[in-house]
Amino acid sequence: MDIEKLKERILRLIPDAQLEENKQFVSFVIPTVNFHSLLENLKSSEDTAMDFLFCLSGVDMGKELMVVYHLSSIKHGHEIVLKVKTADRENPAVDTISDLFKSAEFHEREVYDMFGIRFNNHPDMRRIFLDENWKGFPCRKDYVDEINIIEL
Fold first, then answer.
1. Which are the contacts of 67, defined by CB distance < 8 A and separation ≥ 6?
2. CA dihedral 139, 80, 34, 121 (to 10 degrees)
C-alpha cells in the first residue's frame, strides 16, 4: 500500500481525522475515542502492517496536551505519525497501546511522569524516572520548580 492509499484508508476509517503533511511524515490528529481501534486495524491488516512503534512522546501545546506516535511498517516500508490531543489538563488521559506494542509500556510511563497524561488500562501506570512523591510534571509549560528555579 502506498502512502496515498494509506491516507485514504485512515480518512475512510476515521472521517474526523485531521490530515497534516510535512516533508518527512504524513500525520493525522485522531480523536481519542477512535485511536486504539484505528491502531489495532492498522497493525493487524495485511496491507498496512504497522508493526513498529519507533517513537512515542508527549507535547504540551498550551491549552491541550498531546501524545505523538511514530509508526512504520517493516514489511511495506511506509511511516506515519498519529497524534491524540486532550484538552483536559487536570485529568488528561488516553487509551494505552501497550497491549498492541510492548515497547509502549515504558514510553507511556515516561509521558505520564513528565506530562501527567494517564494511559487508560496501562498495566503499570506509575512514575518511571521521578520519585512517587514528586509534585507536578516537569515537561509541562506551566510547571514551576521553586527549589531548582526552573523557568521556561
1. 56, 57, 58, 59, 83, 84, 94, 111, 117
2. -50
pLDDT in tens, 44-82: 999 999 999 999 999 999 999 999 999 999 999 999 999
109-148 pLDDT, tens digit each = 999 999 999 999 999 999 999 999 999 999 999 998 777 7
Give the pTM: 0.92
E runs forming strands in 15-78: 18-21, 26-29, 52-60, 65-72
Q: Which residue has the cell 509549560?
A: 141
CATH of 3-120 among 2.40.30.170, 3.90.180.10, 3.30.70.2470, 3.30.460.80: 3.30.460.80
CA nearest neighbour of 37 among 10, 69, 65: 10
